[in-house]
Structure prediction request, 405 residues.
Amino acid sequence: MKVPFSPPDIREQDIEAVVEVLRSGWITSGPVGEKFREALTEFSGTAGTMLLNSATAGLKNALRFLGIGPGDEVIVPAYTYTASASVVAHVGAKIVMVDVEPGDYFPSAQRIRAAITQNTKAIILVDLAGRMVDTAPFYEAIEDAQPLFHPSNALQETLGRIALIIDGAHSLGATGYGMHSGQAGDFTAFSFHAVKNLTTAEGGALTWRTENPLSDQVEHFVKLNTLHGQSKSALEKTNSAGWEYDVLFPGYKENMPDTLAALGYSQLQRYPQMIARRHQIIDSYTQALADLPVTALAHSGTDAQGRSWNSSGHLYLLSLDTLGLAERNQFIEEMFNRGISCNVHYKPLPMLTAYRDLGFKIDDFPNAYEAYCHEVTLPLNTVLDDKQVEYVQETAKEILSRMMK
Prediction:
């Protein structure tokens, strides 16, 4: 039996939605994208959303909007995908990397607070595996560090503090701490890449919470910045005799066309059911492996105030607690030989050439390295049927039981 790691869940209605756009004669950013954008804003309960070509573009646009650049610092966790940190380099700011907590995949607010300096302009937190970060302690850390904050432009002065940006590439549809994903940070970037819960093939979005004092200015900037700084979009020029336009600043080309937006809008209509199916698989895996010395990242629970929380169920992270790096890799190979594709999330950033070249050393991030050595990600997607789920958990249990003797 073959079990792919994360194939896209494309249904007939998705295909028809894209075909309808292809037949419409308008295939770039247009009316379908506007419909998807509005639906995402309503789904997330945020002040506004802009569609982009990636979550990376979303994070970068948040930094550019805030005027963050050379001389500024942005704090990011060491245990994440490169996009969380590369955007800081894109705008010319300094990446300040922090370790995660022992036995965890997330940094604490105390660790973030210790990294704040007078040059810190933003903190990027990551909703790893679709699990929302509780941002309340981080806002407290930002408030505690307020004397260090020195705004360098009017927008930063209006915000009045260090910005909190969420890399929500995994967390669309997650809930927690009385909020929906998208409401927890000043800005949140979503990904719709082919391996994500909801896909547009390639694509992403930037959304911002209603409490953001800059919310009435974000949309205009991002719209311009993602269309070369051009004052009128192609649709606006087509729907008017006034073809005249200006380029207000040298922007970028990062918009999402309607062909992709149609796929995303179609999938959004059934997205709650997709998340529910993911949680069914998560619960099945966890129950099947309960007798082994492994620790699965939780995807639901109750917070300190008694409020329930649920992840988007994007990734099933499993720590093989008694096995080391070589054994973890052996497990992945044995699963592959049985037709099951697994993965690792993530190789800590300081292990990667790009970040080593920037001077980061993995020895300075022992907790991230320890988490990496034990972590394996099992297949979790809505294309899996019950027989495949059973095969994955039975095969994993068989291999791990033998390796852990």
User: Anything to note?
Assistant: The chain is about 40% helix and 15% strand. Residues 272-403 form a domain with the Aspartate Aminotransferase, domain 1 fold (CATH 3.90.1150.10).
